[in-house]
Design a protein that fits this description.
With 69 residues, this protein is mostly beta strands. It has strands at residues 4-12, 41-44, 54-61, 64-67. The chain is elongated, with a radius of gyration of 16 Å.
Length: 69
């Protein structure tokens, strides 16, 4: 591997529709971002081996989970 096994560079905030804009609707009090909601991004069974720096690194992430890491 190079420096990192998994590198999330800059921002990763997973949305249901990644190419649509994020619009805040002040009328909907339960979820103001209901038109393009956040959802969970999962990384399962990530094996990172002999990295020069880190196995996984991220700068700014939303709802991201790692399982069996």
């Amino acid at each position: 591997m190079g420096r990192y096994g998994l590198r999330i560079f800059h921002n990763m905030i997973p949305r249901k529709y990644p190419c649509k804009p994020i619009i805040k609707d002040g009328n909907n009090k339960t979820d103001p971002f209901w038109q393009n909601p956040i959802f969970e991004a999962r990384f399962d069974n990530l094996t990172s081996w002999k990295n020069k720096r880190n196995g996984a690194i991220a700068e700014k992430v939303g709802w991201v989970t790692f399982n069996n890491f």
